[in-house]
Amino acid sequence: CFNQAFVWKVRSAKVVVWLLATKLLTKLDFKQSRLVEFSRCHGFLLGLNTTANQTHKMSENIATEIMNMKLWKGCFKQNLNKFVEQFTESITVDRRLYKEDIEGSIAHVTMLHSCGLVKEEEKEIIIKTLQEIQVDIEQNRIELKTELEDIHMNIESELIKRIGDTGRKLHTGRSRNDQIVTDLRMYTRKHIDVIIELLLTIMKHLANLSEKHAKTIMPGFTHFQIAQPISLGHYLLAYACMFQRDINRLIDCRKRVNINPLGSAALAGTTHHINRYLTSKLLHFDEPSENCLDSISDRDFVIEFISTCCLIVMHLSRISEEFIIFMNPQFNFLSLPESFLTGSSIMPQKKNPDVLELIRGKTGRIYANLINILTTMKCQTLAYNRDLQEDKLPLFDTVDNIIMCLVAFGKLIEKSIFNEQEMYQTAIKGFGLSTDVVDYLVKKGLPFRTSHEIVGSMIKYCNDKHKTFSDLTLTELKTFHNFISDDIIDILCIENSLKFKNHVGGTSPDQVKISVQTFRLYIQKITNKLEFKFSD
User: Fold this and answer.
1) Residues 6 or more apart in contact with residue 110 via CB below 8 angstroms
2) Which GO terms describe its biological process (predicted)?
């Protein structure tokens, strides 16, 4: 009796090994004939009396087993082509939506219970198991299978595997069509809040630096030629204004993102008596979508979000470009800590601003994502088409890269050191006070065009004599017009040039400080709103 039991255990183990090997070769895409040959040979060695037909049948069973994993297999007579399975899967991309998918499913089953479509104990076991599945995914204890196509089918199949037919009730009253767009809206909403927070951090650093450098003089440029002196604080606040508009655009975009499509089902809604207001509340959406067909069909919220990110990264690229120029020894306006610079493999003296250059470079990548999604959407008929599977890569790539750029720039701007003396010396070159002298003559009663011509002749004289305005004596200045008097000395003081532009939006130190306080109030207001949303 002992020997017979031992023989059966050995034979059982051999069968398991044989089946695993056969299944492995199937996955490695061995030709059918090779698979049959392998199975017959090893079946014989294992003491299994299998014929070619039996072996062929077993390999077919493996393919059928894969097909049986499809939750939509009901009306199909043939197994899915292996290449088609690989071509159409999206789990390698959409696996990052598992949290949103599980959160949406928990809200959905809670709603089903409130409408009498699932029992209390069924709701509880589904929610408990979904939460366990989420933990297992986070800890890599679940293998997400390409055979199951996407994150939705992987999670639902795992649920059914664990709790049986009760898990099959979860999908009542919904489709993957409304499920995926719900996930995407939740994902986009979450990352809008993250991006706003990162922009606020950059604005805080800009406000702090602007306050510190309210009186620091630098050259202002037009056509990248010296134009007029401005304060460094005024310069930095210009970018703070841009990022403020970016935040406002994101807040506005969020309103259109935060609409609940769940319950739209495939395109027309469902015959079940569901409560979409309840799922909206549970998932923190503002309201359910107005039209089920529209909910499923469009990805304009993704397009709007990516286009807003294009503006953000464009602003980041512009300030990065200027910082790269300011770091150049020919300017020497800016120094960055070595921890934000890289070296050269051949030139030992090099300290390269790679972080700023990469921000500038990633701008094109995010622009491309916008063109990608616009092109994907341009010819689609209404409701879901498989083209929409391609909406995720541009969205995810945009989110990843805009966040990296914002984090990198936020860390970099905080550590930036400006060379005040070098900026001042450059500002007094290039006749940057010319417009101030024109304004001086206008205030004396001369027409603007006449004043402009007089100052032009002064510049020509200085160039011929290799002088600047500050080199001219009062006697020389008065030769250009009899309206010029001793008080022009105040006009030719570069500090006064800033001081006299003391109006809303001007570059005077007083106006810079007022603007800094305005920005700080704005930052606090938006921060409070974000904290309220997070606590909610």
Assistant:
1) 123, 127, 278, 279, 282
2) L-arginine biosynthetic process via ornithine
Active-site annotation, residues: 223, 344
Q: Are residues 300 and 340 in the same domain?
A: yes
Same domain, 191 and 119: no
Do residues 300 and 391 share a domain?
yes
Co-location of 260 and 148 in the same domain: no
DSSP letter for 483, please: T
Crossing angle of helices 98-114 and 151-163, in 10° steps, is 60
Query: Is 510 inside a domain boundary?
Result: no
Across 156-267, the runs of DSSP E, i.e. the strands, are 217-222, 225-231, 259-260
Hunting for tokens 């037009």 — which residue is that?
222
Kindly state whether residues 210 and 336 are assigned to the same domain: yes
pLDDT digits (tens, 9 = 90+) for 76-129: 777 777 778 777 788 989 999 999 999 999 999 999 999 999 999 999 999 999
Q: How far is CA 89 from the centre of its chain?
A: 23
Residue type for position 356: L
Chain segment 389-408, per-residue pLDDT in tens: 999 999 999 999 999 999 99
> How many residues are recorded in the chain?
536
* Residue 289 to residues 181, 258, 294, 296, 382, Cα–Cα distance (Å): 11, 9, 8, 10, 16
When the pLDDT of each residue in the chain is averaged and rounded to a whole number, the result is 89
pLDDT-derived band of residue 194, with 50, 70 and 90 as boundaries?
very high
Handedness of CA 457, 460, 465, 467 (dihedral sign): positive
pLDDT of residue 53: 53
| Statement: residue 31 has pLDDT above 80 | no
> What was the pLDDT predicted at 530?
86
- Maximum CA pair distance of the chain? 128
Asked if residue 322 and residue 388 are part of one domain, the reply reads yes
Q: Is 278 part of a structural domain of the chain? A: no
Question: What is the extent of the structural domain holding 386?
Answer: 182-215+230-267+290-421
**CA dist., res. 487 & res. 168, Å (int):** 88
Question: Distance (Å, rounded) from C-alpha 22 to C-alpha 63?
Answer: 11
Q: Could you give the CA distance from residue 250 to residue 260 in angstroms, rounded to a whole number?
A: 18
